[in-house]
Amino acid sequence: xxxxxxxxxxxxxxxxxxxxxxxxxxxxxxxxxxxxxxxxxxxxxxxxxxxxxxxxxxxxxxxxxxxxxxxxxxxxxxxxxxxxxxxxxxxxxxxxxxxxxxxxxxxxxxxxxxxxxxxxxxxxxxxxxxxxxxxxxxxxxxxxxxxxxxxxxxxxxxxxxxxxxxxxxxxxxxxxxxxxxxxxxxxxxxxxxxxxxxxxxxxxxxxxxxxxxxxxxxxxxxxxxxxxxxxxxxxxxxxxxxxxxxxxxxxxxxxxxxxxxxxxxxxxxxxxxxxxxxxxxxxxxxxxxxxxxxxxxxxxxxxxxxxxxxxxxxxxxxxxxxxxxxxxxxxxxxxxxxxxxxxxxxxxxxxxxxxxxxxxxxxxxxxxxxxxxxxxxxxxxxxxxxxxxxxxxxxxxxxxxxxxxxxxxxxxxxxxxxxxxxxxxxxxxxxxxxxxxxxxxxxxxxxxxxxxxxxxxxxxxxxxxxxxxxxxxxxxxxxxxxxxxxxxxxxxxxxxxxxxxxxxxxxxxxxxxxxxxxxxxxxxxxxxxxxxxxxxxxxxxxxxxxxxxxxxxxxxxxxxxxxxxxxxxxxxxxxxxxxxxxxxxxxxxxxxxxxxxxxxxxxxxxxxxxxxxxxxxxxxxxxxxxxxxxxxxxxxxxxxxxxxxxxxxxxxxxxxxxxxxxxxxxxxxxxxxxxxxxxxxxxxxxxxxxxxxxxxxxxxxxxxxxxxxxxxxxxxxxxxxxxxxxxxxxxxxxxxxxxxxxxxxxxxxxxxxxxxxxxxxxxxxxxxxxxxxxxxxxxxxxxxxxxxxxxxxxxxxxxxxxxxxxxxxxxxxxxxxxxxxxxxxxxxxxxxxxxxxxxxxxxxxxxxxxxxxxxxxxxxxxxxxxxxxxxxxxxxxxxxxxxxxxxxxxxxxxxxxxxxxxxxxxxxxxxxxxxxxxxxxxxxxxxxxxxxxxxxxxxxxxxxxxxxxxxxxxxxxxxxxxxxxxxxxxxxxxxxxxxxxxxxxxxxxxxxxxxxxxxxxxxxxxxxxxxxxxx
Length: 1015
Hints:
Blueprint: H1 4-13, E1 18-19, E2 24-27, E3 30-38, E4 49-51, E5 55-59, E6 62-66, E7 70-74, E8 82-90, E9 100-105, E10 113-118, H2 119-122, E11 124-129, E12 132-136, E13 148-156, E14 159-164, E15 167-173, E16 185-190, E17 193-204, E18 223-226, E19 229-232, H3 240-250, H4 254-263, H5 268-278, H6 291-305, H7 310-323, H8 332-340, H9 349-367, H10 370-386, H11 391-396, H12 416-438, H13 450-453, H14 457-464, H15 471-487, E20 497-498, H16 499-502, H17 504-507, H18 510-516, H19 521-538, E21 539-541, E22 547-549, E23 553-555, E24 558-559, H20 572-575, H21 577-585, H22 588-606, H23 648-662, H24 669-678, H25 693-703, H26 706-716, H27 722-728, H28 731-738, H29 741-754, H30 759-762, H31 777-785, E25 801-804, E26 810-818, E27 821-828, E28 834-840, E29 846-857, E30 864-868, E31 872-876, E32 883-887, E33 892-902, E34 912-913, E35 919-922, E36 925-932, E37 941-949, E38 952-961, E39 974-980, E40 990-994, E41 1009-1012
Antiparallel strand pairs: 1-3, 2-3, 3-17, 4-7, 5-6, 6-17, 7-16, 8-13, 8-17, 9-10, 9-16, 10-11, 11-12, 13-14, 14-15, 18-19, 20-23, 21-22, 23-24, 25-28, 26-27, 27-33, 28-32, 29-30, 29-31, 29-33, 34-36, 35-36, 36-39, 37-38, 37-40, 40-41
């Protein structure tokens, strides 16, 4: 039976929503008034409710919320002091989670404050808002299925309070509480599903102590705006300089007008003009130089002279929000506040609307919501009516604006494959350079937040690594990775969270820095620290004897082990990227743990368990049992109990990588069984019931992706799965099956042409940095290096060669790559012959024959002849050991390295390493930290200080080191050596050199020298 009050109001207003009841109630000794209610006695939701995410409907007199992160917002404004109450029951179809409320919300962006009962998969109660969270990690009350709870969420002054069934669960005090225009909505939140009833909203009769006075409009200024033009409100009374400045502005002389207004920033009229100029879309501000923040500082200076002036005070407040506007989502709240003040008397309105549209656009892009994107583009179109020349607006609204036309491929002067490949590579590097020039903050961030910024590395790292010609990009990536280490990670890992996200900051940066900065001890030792944390904190040995992740939620500060935290899933392959690359570096401990983890997964994948077919990885393996079934007797395929569902494609990546690192053919069996099931016909149709044979076969068919079939061919030489590679693969993968250069060339052309327009929309405008991947990165990376896989997650390192070059002015196409041979077709766009170096990564140690020569036409289509020069013999004993060649300009040039005689080298060897950062100068002494990043201890060696003189290096001093152990159990091994700097010696052109006598055989000889200036 619904309340009599509701029925009375329903009759009175003939409206499905009750509003503006005069009934006052007392709550915590404060006067509150019921202003809105809903009991859902109808069939349709109506217009006053809006689903920001998910779906809402009415079922049997209750509001039903379904979806992940659904927010049912009451789409009308409330006073800043507000209380939302409702009765809630978890949807019985899902594990209970989040019977929660959202306050200080907007109809566009959702809640700013989340007051959550049963948050984090029903493990905590919490209040979360911008820049803060208060979490009860050990709650006495959590959601129980089948029970109805009375939820009360209150924002009163600076206080936020969550009550359930009348008891306070969480309380928070906020320094600067949000509210007022743009943040005056309230609503109901869940991350699975809930039923709500008896919704009531109360407002405080009088503002509570600490409730801010929120701006609702701005006062009249002595200058106003109409369209593109400014005008004095009292033209005859204004100063002559102001009239002149306004005239300049109206004629489009923006810089001159700005100068004049800034010269009179000690007056209200001067500040009004300055603000209108900065708020105009012809004025181009920069996040780096902070012009908008300077406006705010000037308003504060003016306020300090007239602290009691309410108009100046209001503008000073608004200008503080204006200063927040930047291409980072941190400005979203301020943009909404400024737009909510309206156009009238608001010099910041148009610039704020532009930023709001930007934020909204990228929110839609990130969420895949075309309706949101369209809304933002609509705002942009309205702005473009006033500023049709604005490049940013033109790009957002669908125009194509060319850039970098000097990079366009010239196929009349150069071979088409080389011209398009070079353009594609040069544009990708240029895009990265623009990001680092215009977007990178001092701490290394790129504007999307660390969690999104690091995802760029999944494509950027491989393009930056192609050659030393991408110097700026490499430096920017290193700065980002260093910032992640210092700002996000502790003990090499992020704080506890779901593995999909907690593993990103470290796994997307540290492991592949071992490739980008090969031999640099800093990155080896940092990644080593990550591996140690993973092994010691996140892994345990399960009942079957295999290493097993204890859950899918972990971080440096703990591991969640409740059933809701899941088991060992495919996403843990992302975390294992650290061990993969440490094993690639040669570390036996990381290799052993990774291979044993993969053996456990290989055994489970290859077996038939319950209804799971051989070849299909289970959705989880549970610790400590090692079982494929979730605790509690649930079926192995239950997607409500398995944290991520089927992520077996990442497991197969890892298992194939285990074969690449070990040569153990038992790691091939799971993929072979997968392909047996994937190719079994006919293909099941429809939507098979979970756990059935058809369900398993359909799942395996979806896992037969080209990254695996191309890798399998690369590892084994077998061609049996080439049809999958050719049908679905990247052009780099397809090329390895048929070597069709014409088809590959067309992919270079598509990649190059796709990047010829809208530079800003690919760089300075991007907010969702995880959506700014380089298009077709594997296509280009594969051509230059011979790789058939990129560098993300558990991918196997397959690159054969990179280059030491002065810049990106060359094209290279690897046409053969085996452990015994490397052949590359190259083309130079430099105007003179250049000496460059190849760095071969896969060749076996031995003596090689190097042949180089121009490519000539042959007698038949597809056949070539070569103007081979004299054969050269050389020893290649170390990975990435430079091979120097001279590349003539404007000629297709073939470079061939083939094994002539294999060499026997130690299976394990030390790797003495030093970098400039390892050298400290104190008075007349140098203190040098020497690292051993190899996998064996070193014998005796010397450390020498040398100085360049007349083109030669002269030893100034040296110090013997008896031995240096190798790292043990992922713990670094270093020794500090001191060397004197002779009196009177010049302090320039110095270097420290390890093992100058070449007494120690090392895994890498290229990291034994570091330059130092002691001046």
